[in-house]
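Extended Data, panel c. Modelled sequence:
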Amino acid sequence: MMIKWGLLYFGLVFGAGFGLGIVRMIWLVPWVGTRWAELLEMPWMLIVIILSAQWIVKTTSSEPQENQKHSYFGIGIIALACLLAAEVGVGISLRGMTITQALLARDPISGTVYYLLLLVYALMPWLWAKRLQSLN
């Protein structure tokens, strides 16, 4: 079950990121440049991450206890691994980059924020589950 929910979490966030990436590349980059376009996209991605993790936690927490064998931390790690694999795949196939370039060739400022957002992405299901437990 953990793999299923990790893949679903990845799909939700990657799908939104793909759509926002098109908007960023077509309209924002020519207007404000790459760094600012990426920085302007990141709050929207944070909202998507929070809402997706919240939905995953609420959906899985309604399952019967005997079926609730997944770990929210594991869900985030599976989703992160899928996201990094997709980054590399897109970088290599569509942009002609090497694996190292696909993962590390980023603006120093927006790249740092991006990597922090990846950390938030991986931890968000676990954080929402903890929050839900504390409210109950």
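The CA atoms of residues 88 and 94 lie 10 Å apart. This feature is highlighted in the accompanying rendering.
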